[in-house]
Automatic annotation (TrEMBL):
Pathway: Carbohydrate metabolism; tricarboxylic acid cycle. This is Succinate dehydrogenase/fumarate reductase iron-sulfur subunit. SUPFAM superfamilies: 2Fe-2S ferredoxin-like (SSF54292), alpha-helical ferredoxin (SSF46548). Its cofactor is [2Fe-2S] cluster; [3Fe-4S] cluster; [4Fe-4S] cluster. Signal peptide: none annotated. Belongs to the succinate dehydrogenase/fumarate reductase iron-sulfur protein family. PROSITE patterns: 2FE2S_FER_1, 2FE2S_FER_2. Residues 6-93 form the 2Fe-2S ferredoxin-type domain.
Amino acid sequence: MSTYDARFRIWRGDADGGGLTDYTVEVHDGEVVLDIVHRLQATQAPDLAVRWNCKAGKCGSCSAEINGRPRLLCMTRMSVFARDETVTITPMRAFPVIRDLVTDVSFNYAKAREIPAFVPPAGLAPGEYRMKQEDVDRSQEFRKCIECFLCQNTCHVVRDHEENKPVFAGPRFLMRIAELDMHPLDAAEDSGLDRRRTAQDDHGLGYCNITKCCTEVCPEDIAITDNALIPMKERVVDRRYDPVVWLGNRIRRRNGA
Ligand code: SF4
Ligand code: SF4
Ligand code: FES
């Protein structure tokens, strides 16, 4: 087994400010960046804060930025960097820092709570639901999400624009609305909930200009933009310019509804 010493530059600080600190840490064959952070804690910086749980790319806790790119610390192999390269690790930029590499991601939990859950179809009990396999496959892709929030952190609509946060749910949660809107058994409309309208009017779908940056950083390789956001935008437009819907809205307005 070969080992070598690698240079790291890690952001240390808290909500009041901080800066990059240089370290030299031993690296062993096959290690990932989280291994190095753990060795650093064990040997030089026991107070270095980092959030992690599974070390298997499944819990979504170890999100950070490595050389400026949003990534999971536990799924980034050291072998992707040259041995003489300085590896810089910083916390996610779109969320407030708590300490060192740990950020406060509660923005995402607040957005999750704003999205109404699946509305079960009337007259059918769980176990009686029947769906086509292609519909199952479609939502299965979105359900691979591990809620790492790397896509949320990357999206330019909020990354440098704190002021957009109240009106923009972000790709992860626009994808959730799209998933529910595509669900053949979701009975939201029957209960008066128009998911397309809320996506556009309440959750900021119109801010998304389909740059696909969210898709590029997703560790689950979910085609967020192509399979969720673009189809959702198309359905919003279909609804808005559907002549039957247009006529219905006119009549409702005329009747003062
Ligand atoms: S595709 Fe839309 S949601 Fe994704 S990063 Fe770009 S603007 Fe944000
Ligand atoms: S969609 Fe991908 S990048 Fe976004 S939170 Fe889920 S797993 Fe992470
Ligand atoms: S520690 Fe769970 S995804 Fe990295």
